[in-house]
Write a structure and sequence with these properties.
Layout lengths: L8 H31 L5 H31 L1 H16 L4 H21 L3 E8 L6 E4 L11 H9 L3 E4 L13 E9 L6 E10 H9 L7 E5 L5 E4 L11 H7 L8 E7 L2 E9 L6 E7 H4 L2 H46 L14 H59 L3 H18 L6 E3 H19 L3 E7 L7 E3 L4 H11 L7 E10 L2 E8 L6 H8 L10 H14 L4 E7 L3 E9 L11
Parallel strand pairs: 12-14
Antiparallel strand pairs: 1-2, 1-5, 3-4, 4-5, 6-7, 6-10, 8-9, 9-10, 11-13, 14-15, 15-17, 16-17
């Protein structure tokens, strides 16, 4: 295997191609032999048991459904109440003909309602133990001599509540399709005396549907009663007949409900026969499956070939995947490295332990990464210097701009001949100049920024007297956080000089500051003339506006972007004649930990 590292890719592919062609042939040969050997041992016993058990369960459910239905009829008030009243009126001769007809109508009407909701029920008859004429609904007519029927007598004499039968003498003549007859002995729920027998005819079609789709080709299913008579079967020759006597004797002793199987020759065919007694009566389900169906050589051969080919294909796919993975592993590794580089990680390297062409490719790739890293470091240094220069240039633009306006204010005040006001103004100006010349050129605490803003406001209030109303509400929790200098003062200056230049009402400016999570939020709100939509759109598209009205705002926006990058937000909301609302959101971390942005 050590020498394998020195082989070329072409040799490696040839070796694996041989493996792909030989291994599937071996697999096909072995599996064909095993399948041919075990084909004769194909076990249909479990299949016969399972399918017979399922059919028996379905038939039990079928029988139980109608058992419950006929019991519901027997316990219904239509029979219990109306029949009892009918008997009482008849015995006492106190009722009129209309009352008698109403009682009969109520009973038979309930029967018709049941027929309407159950399409497989053909007839419902109630045969009273008294001398009252039977009640009926459906296509079969009740027999006049029903009390002589053996099954009627059996239910009355033996108190056998439910009985299923195919042939009875309870009806005058049978009409329509074949059907089963379900008998039920009705007891008076109050006195528990016999009231009569309900006979319900049920179409055999529903019973046939239960097993028709589950019987394999050439399979025969019988439903047998306790006498061996065929109740239903998919073999038309067996209907109305009896099951093979010898076969029947093998299962007649089956008293439990476990499925039994035997091998048996039926009509000259070798069969696997399964039988199971039903739980709802003394019937049996007997299922005969021919061995020939399951052991046809052609089908088995096709299965063997199919399985063998499938396995060979799976083997070929498996080996091919292994080959491609093995050969392409260095390429895949290099691809992953390139994706990491694309995401900004230039510290990765391609490691290759082979001695083939991929080794040379990996070495060249690593050399290229080293050269890129060198270029990136140089470029980063250049961008940092450019960023610092841009920031300081923008910072410097603020100082002379507001100092010029402040001196202009002092000059105006001097003309007003108010020495005290001039002194206060000069003091405030001195504080501002001291703030400008602080050794920390770029940043200051929120507390210092607010003090500087207050000094500037004092100067402006000397000029505008009571016309200028400025409110500052900044949470004390922000005092020790750092921000860039002159973040708020240019906003106040912009509001005073440009927001109120053409209005006569009081000038109101509100400054708010609060901490939300990891961000500080500052808001400046005025009731001035507002900012034109064109200027606001220029801010959003980062186009510098040469109008002095927007100079301070653009400066702040540029400094925020240079210092905080995408961690800051500068939002302007304004409507002409209704004032301006500016919201600044910046990180609440120490600025000394932030890097300059490109």
């Amino acid at each position: 295997m050590k020498q394998y590292k020195y082989l070329g890719i072409k040799i490696k592919i040839m070796i694996f191609a041989l493996i792909i062609s030989v291994v599937p042939l071996i697999i096909v040969g072995v599996l064909s032999f095993i399948s041919a050997y075990k084909a004769v041992e194909n076990n249909i016993d479990d299949y016969a048991k399972n399918i017979t058990e399922q059919i028996a369960i379905n038939i039990d459910n079928y029988l139980d459904k109608y058992n419950q239905k006929i019991k519901e009829i027997g316990f219904s008030s239509e029979i219990q109440k109306n029949y009892t009243q009918l008997v009482e009126v008849t015995n006492t001769n106190e009722g009129d003909i209309i009352s008698l007809m109403n009682y009969r109508f109520n009973i038979e009407d309930s029967f018709y309602n049941t027929l309407i909701s159950n399409k497989n029920i053909g007839t419902i008859c109630f045969y009273p133990t008294s001398n009252i004429t039977p009640f009926s609904a459906g296509i079969q007519l009740p027999s006049d001599s029903y009390k002589e029927d053996i099954y009627y007598k059996k239910l009355i004499d033996e108190s056998d509540f439910v009985h299923w039968e195919k042939e009875t003498s309870l009806f005058k003549k049978r009409f329509g399709k074949s059907f089963l007859t379900l008998l039920y002995l009705v007891k008076n729920i109050n006195y528990y005396n016999d009231m009569g027998v309900i006979a319900m005819t049920i179409s055999l079609d529903e019973l046939t549907e239960i097993y028709d789709d589950n019987i394999p080709k050439q399979g025969i299913l019988y439903i047998i009663n306790e006498d061996g008579s065929v109740i239903s079967s998919n073999d038309s020759k067996s209907i109305n007949g009896y099951l093979d006597k010898e076969l029947w004797e093998k299962f007649i002793r089956t008293t439990d409900y476990e499925c039994k199987t035997i091998k048996y020759r039926l009509d000259g065919k070798s069969m696997q026969v399964a039988a199971r007694k039903l739980k709802n009566n003394n019937w049996y389900v007997i299922n005969a499956l021919p061995y020939k169906t399951f052991m046809e050589g052609t089908i088995d051969t096709i299965k063997i070939i199919g399985v063998s080919i499938l396995l060979c294909m799976l083997g070929a796919v498996f080996v091919t995947i292994k080959i491609s993975r093995y050969i392409s592993m260095p390429i895949t590794e290099m691809k992953l490295i390139m994706e990491e580089i694309g995401e900004g990680n230039f510290d990765v390297r391609v490691e290759n332990g082979y001695k083939d062409e991929f080794k040379e490719l990996a070495n060249g790739f690593n050399t290229m990464i080293d050269e890129i890293n060198t270029l990136r470091e140089n470029e980063k240094k250049v961008y940092i210097e450019i960023g610092k220069a841009q920031f300081l240039a923008l910072q410097a633009q603020i100082n002379p701009h507001f100092i010029y306006n402040t001196l202009d204010t002092i000059n105006w005040m001097a003309n007003m001949i108010d020495a005290d006001n001039i002194a206060l103004t000069v003091t405030s100006l001195a504080n501002i100049l001291r703030f400008c010349m602080d050794k920390n050129l770029n940043t200051t605490s929120v507390a210092n920024e607010i003090d500087n803003l207050s000094n500037y406001i004092k100067i402006q209030q000397q000029r505008y007297k009571n016309k200028l109303d400025i409110e500052i509400k900044v949470d004390s929790s922000l005092e020790n956080y750092k921000i860039i200098k002159f973040l708020l003062q240019p906003l106040i200056e912009n509001s005073i000089y440009h927001g109120f230049e053409r209005i006569n009402e009081d000038c109101i400016i509100k400054v708010y500051g609060k901490l939300e999570g990891e961000y500080m939020i500052f808001e400046v709100i005025d009731n001035g003339i507002g900012i034109k939509d064109e200027i606001i759109n220029n801010y959003k598209s980062k186009i510098r506006n040469d109008d002095k009205n927007g100079y301070g705002l653009y400066n702040i926006m540029q400094r925020l972007e240079l210092f905080y990058g995408d961690k800051s937000q500068f939002l302007v909301k304004s409507h002409c004649g209704k004032g301006t609302h500016i919201i600044i959101t910046i990180p609440s971390i120490g600025l000394e930990d932030l890097e300059w942005k490109k």
